[in-house]
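Entry 14. Ran structure prediction on the chain below.
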Amino acid sequence: MFTKIIGLYFITSSLIYAEPLFKENPIFPYQDKHAHSSSIVECPNGDLLACWFYGSGERTADDVLIQGSRLKAGAASWEPIFLMADTPGFPDCNPVLFIDQQERLWLFWITVLAHRWELSVLKYRISSDYMRAGPPQWRWQDIITLKPGDAFAQAVRGGFQRTVDEGMWAEYAPPYTEMLINAAQDPAKRQLGWMTRTHPVILPNGRLLLPLYSDGFCLGLVAISDDSGATWRASQPMVGLGLNQPSIVRKRDGTLVAYMRDEGMAPLRVLKSISTDDGETWSFAVDTDLPNPSSSVEAIVLQDGSWLLIYNDTEDGRYQLAATLSFDEGESWTIKRYIAKDETRVCSYSYPSIMQTRDGLLHLTYSYSDGSLKTIKHCIFNREWLREKHE
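Output, structure tokens:
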């Protein structure tokens, strides 16, 4: 038996699977700047890396940049904050960390042009020297350029025309879906504005899938790489009414399921789209039974094969953040625990980034605000805590 320190918490290895565990702590002190959209990964040496965007706002604030911090394996606290990326004079947002099969660290993020989400540029950096104190040493940086073609426009038209009855009409107001169908025919509009939010997925055949979404279209797609990230191409779109920020999990039979934020009409629910061809094409997104207040979600497959989804389980705010388990690959979600909950509805808990480390523990980062002060919180919990009681 041995004991190691994770964050500010002493954890005895023999208890990881025996006793319920839940601990949380801010990565940095509460402060009044905007800190949002975090991402967390485990390095090969056991360090944890986290990042987020930070500044005086979001897409309209030119001081926004990407910050990060490290929790050294065996350390008692996160390192001082360091810079991960900054495009001077432009907002840098929505960072995502990922470690590939070659143990290279990737940072994906967007730089916002003209203060408009739909004009965002998708960027990445790669590092092979990131397991020492301080920021990673980046050896390469580039832009991911995607070229959704006419098939994208056809898929948008086909999805909406076959599936959607908006129920509202006026001569002076073109239907929402018709405006998107028309926009999808513009090559410039469909090539710009694809944004990151959740972790990429590596398929058994080595294919890399980077989930993306567009606030211009409120649609999703996947950037696909079959050569370890050397080149990228676009999947066909995930079409639906107001979907955003897909998070992808894979069933044992190879089916991919994308869970998404709902920006559409009532009832507000976590949306779901399916791919049976390794992410090339996606079904029209439909409601699940899970509430969603237009807020990001993330799902992962755990080491035991069960699925874990982190989400705000309300339709009217981000004042509670839940973790729910499925033992039948998303057909039902039978266990739920609250990560955070505020009966006064003043606090906000949002934009989860979830992963399971090699020792079986679950690590979550999320955006926290008490209405004035903000931070990124880091939670550590185990499967026993999830199953300790049902709510």
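The helical segments are 150-163, 176-183, 187-191, 383-386. Will compare against last week's run tomorrow.
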